[in-house]
Amino acid sequence: MRTRPDHIEVLQLSFGEVEVDEAGYLFDPSNWHPDFARMIARKEGIDLNDLHWRVIDFMRDYQDANGIAADARFSIRFLGEQLGISKADAKQKLFELFPEGYVKQACKMAGMRQPRAWSTG
């Protein structure tokens, strides 16, 4: 369930302040910075590697081009193409990269607003 947008917290990061909702998602995705992703990754116990960054960059580019966040199926397709693997293997890889779920970790790190309801994790 989506958090209430009127519960905003201001975080001070190395590049400035950002506002997040009560679940830690950016209130305004245009305020995203790589240091925000690093902070979320640390909190989630994830050591970001090149493949994490490729997924995050894909998600950011998708949002910029389409005005909405990419759901998991688009990121799975992207991973499959990048790695030359099947859809099933790409889905497994996505959840290896973000083991607590695409929405909880990847979307948050990429600076997406919290989705209202996705069944993809």
Task: Please provide a written account of the structure.
This protein is mainly alpha-helical and 121 residues long. It has one domain (9-109). The chain contains 5 helices and 2 strands; from the N terminus they run ββααααα. It has helices at 34-44, 50-66, 72-83, 87-97, 102-109, and strands at 9-13, 16-20. Strands 1-2 form a two-stranded antiparallel sheet. A hairpin with a 2-residue loop joins strand 1 (9-13) and strand 2. Helix 3 packs across helix 4 (87-97). The longest helix has 17 residues, at 50-66. It starts with 8 loop residues before the first strand and ends in a 12-residue tail after the last helix. The relative contact order is 0.17. The model has no long low-confidence stretch (mean pLDDT 88).
- Roughly how many Å apart are the termini? 12 Å
Write down the overall mean pLDDT.
88
Taken from the alpha-carbon principal axes, the silhouette is globular
Strand order of the largest sheet: 1-2
The rounded Rg comes to: 14 Å
Helix content: 40-55%
Residue runs with pLDDT of under 50 for 5 or more positions:
none
Strand/helix succession: EEHHHHH
Q: Look at the helices and sheets and give the structural class.
A: mainly alpha
Number of strands: 2
Question: Tally the helices: what do you get?
Answer: 5
Q: Approximately what portion of the residues adopt beta-strand conformation? A: 5-15%
**Mind describing the biggest β-sheet?**
2 strands, antiparallel
Overall tally of domains: 1
